[in-house]
């Protein structure tokens, strides 16, 4: 029967609802008169009763009350009804004053409209609730009950209540309780959902068979969030969160805003607010060039740079697709934000080994700051293609920096890596040789300030394990880790780019800046945390029926168990920024490195890998050759 009613034409449904409202209006007016006189008698004719009762129904048609869908009823609509009834009270008083209709006591219209408002509110809420239950029952018959997750909302404040409201019509989530840090709320109820104490979270999850926890505390600190996550670390449960207060400003909080926990929240790492003066020093109202602009770091540098309003931003990239992607993204940002519209954005295809082209670009666009992010960074790939790594990473850096010096660019910043420290792979060795090249060029440059910024893994980059693990978990595949003891440093791409800009602004020339990466993280521990956060259980000897297995594949060619950020133990100094340090490291005369780079093309034609590795051994402290196959 419900299906038949819902299938009726809208005009028929409007007639049914308005007719029901008219009947109730007559009854409400009759009861209002009876209450006024103290006994069941209207004191006016039935025709007069209907004439008075039809007025509010006509008014509801005029304000579009019957155009709304009953199942989508909401409070704002009743606000319009209140305004209408206020006008109707004045109209009734005027009718009674001028004796247009049969006389009745002047207090009756107020009482009548009050009763009729209660009817309208409750009838629409009842219809909405009945339709919702009918729809949910239909879905439950079609779906397995196991597909509906029990959810606990952490945070009983405004955001949590809005989230509960947004989840009411969800067919995937069933909110069973709230959890909150405020002890005064413990034991209270919100729309029938009990609020539990934060310390009882584990018991609540266990007793109520909770599958997911939604963090609805936008103002929560990262440290407090980590405490909550750590409390749930041994339970296979999904954790999602609302965005920060700034991100959800002026938006209605709904389940669509929920997102997965930032992986940084499970790492023991604190961030520091950036120094706006350092961010603006080499960028604001200046012409900036980014090489490798389509890569993970390069593209994030571009996003951070445009926020600081340069006069011109030149994107230099070899991959056409990567260049197109970041160029379109920045143009879209520029269109949405009027603050960015004065910046000229130029997209150029080019190779960093083409010094003449780079020189022309710097001259044509009067470049003042260069961020050199172009590099081959995948360890196994470069290990099997060593000459390509040397030509792109070292020789490319040499030509890029020389072009900047020739064009009298003010600042040149090389993006380096922790793999350059005592490397066991060609990629790291070529990046250290690139640092040495910049150190050598810095000594002969009188105008261009050249510096290097060295840091570890960035979460979410094309070379990071996080997207690989995420994909394996989503597909239900085993997570592949090279070794049980392998550890890495981590930070987010935005933070790394942010610190690179600030470090470059502090340079005087020749410095190797090292970013504070926090504490190293065991990759296997990171894998376990990601499995738990996805709501799965690690499959191992203790849990043979688990969901995701961790498989150790062995170290890849050139891979180290532990990464380092500085070459020596005592050659590190603090800077004005708490997360940026300066390494004091040995360098070589520029002509010695230039001799290697000069012979590189000829040796590459012969694929003389023995010569290449001998040169890396000579210049790069700690580099150890291996027996990796090369092509």
TrEMBL record:
The chain crosses the membrane at residues 20-38, 44-65, 77-97, 103-121. The keyword Mitochondrion does not apply. Keywords: Membrane, Transmembrane, Transmembrane helix. Signal peptide: none annotated. It comes from the Bacteria. InterPro entries: NAD(P)-bd_dom_sf, Polysac_CapD-like, Polysaccharide_Synthase-Rel. Belongs to the polysaccharide synthase family. This is Nucleoside-diphosphate sugar epimerase/dehydratase. The lineage of its organism: Bacteria, Pseudomonadati, Pseudomonadota, Gammaproteobacteria, Moraxellales.
């Amino acid at each position: 029967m419900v299906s038949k009613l819902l299938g009726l034409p809208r005009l028929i449904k409007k007639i049914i609802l308005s007719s029901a409202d008219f009947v109730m209006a007559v009854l409400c007016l009759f009861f209002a008169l009876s209450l006024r006189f103290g006994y069941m008698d209207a004191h006016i004719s039935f025709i007069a009763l209907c004439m008075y009762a039809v007025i509010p129904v006509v008014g509801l048609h005029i304000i579009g009350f019957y155009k709304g869908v009953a199942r989508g009823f909401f409070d704002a609509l009743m606000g319009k009804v209140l305004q209408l009834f206020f006008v109707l009270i004045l109209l009734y008083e005027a009718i009674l004053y001028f004796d247009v209709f049969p006389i009745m006591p002047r207090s009756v219209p107020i009482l009548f409209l009050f009763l009729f408002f209660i009817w309208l509110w409750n009838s629409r809420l009842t219809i909405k609730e009945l339709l919702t239950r009918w729809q949910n029952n239909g879905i439950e018959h079609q779906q397995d009950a196991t597909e509906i997750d029990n959810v606990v909302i952490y945070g009983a404040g405004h955001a949590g209540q809005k989230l509960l409201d947004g989840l009411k019509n969800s067919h995937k989530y069933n909110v069973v309780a709230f959890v909150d840090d405020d002890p005064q709320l413990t034991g209270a109820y919100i729309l029938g959902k009990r609020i539990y104490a934060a310390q009882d979270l584990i018991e609540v999850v266990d007793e109520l068979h909770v599958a997911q926890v939604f963090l609805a505390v936008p103002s929560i600190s990262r440290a407090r969030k980590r405490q909550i996550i750590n409390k749930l670390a041994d339970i296979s449960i999904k954790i999602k969160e609302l965005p920060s207060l700034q991100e959800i400003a002026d938006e209605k909080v709904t389940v669509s805003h929920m997102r997965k926990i930032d992986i940084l929240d499970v790492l023991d790492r604190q961030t520091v607010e950036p120094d706006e003066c350092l961010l603006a020093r080499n960028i604001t109202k200046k012409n900036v060039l980014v090489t490798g602009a389509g890569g993970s770091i390069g593209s994030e540098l571009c996003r951070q740079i445009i926020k600081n309003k340069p006069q011109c931003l030149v994107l230099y990239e070899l991959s056409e697709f990567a260049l197109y992607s970041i160029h379109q993204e920045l143009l879209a940002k520029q269109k949405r934000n009027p603050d960015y519209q004065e910046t000229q954005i130029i997209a150029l295809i080019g190779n960093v080994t083409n010094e003449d082209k780079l020189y022309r670009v710097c001259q044509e666009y009067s470049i003042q700051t260069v961020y050199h992010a172009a590099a081959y960074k995948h360890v196994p790939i470069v290990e099997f293609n060593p000459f390509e790594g040397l030509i792109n990473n070292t020789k490319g850096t040499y030509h890029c920096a020389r072009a900047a010096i020739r064009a009298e660019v003010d600042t040149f910043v090389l993006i380096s890596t922790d793999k350059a420290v005592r490397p066991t792979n060609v990629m790291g060795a070529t990046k250290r040789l690139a640092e040495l090249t910049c150190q050598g060029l810095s000594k002969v440059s009188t105008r261009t300030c050249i510096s290097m910024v060295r840091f570890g893994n960035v979460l979410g980059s094309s070379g990071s394990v996080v997207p690989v693990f995420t994909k394996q978990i989503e597909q239900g595949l085993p997570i592949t880790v090279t070794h049980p003891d392998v550890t890495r440093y981590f930070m987010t791409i935005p933070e790394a780019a942010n610190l690179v800009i600030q470090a470059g602004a502090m340079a005087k020339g020749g410095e190797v800046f090292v970013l504070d990466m926090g504490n190293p993280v065991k990759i296997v521990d990171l894998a376990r945390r990601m499995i738990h956060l996805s709501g799965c259980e690690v499959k191992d000897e203790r849990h043979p029926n688990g969901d995701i297995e961790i498989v150790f594949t062995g170290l890849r060619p050139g891979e180290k168990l532990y990464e380092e950020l500085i070459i020596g133990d005592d050659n590190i100094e603090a800077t004005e920024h708490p997360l940026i340090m300066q390494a004091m490291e040995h360098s070589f005369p520029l002509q010695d490195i230039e001799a290697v780079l000069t012979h590189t093309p000829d040796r590459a034609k012969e694929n003389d890998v023995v010569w290449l590795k001998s040169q890396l051994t000579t210049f790069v402290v700690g580099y150890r050759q291996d027996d990796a196959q090369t092509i």
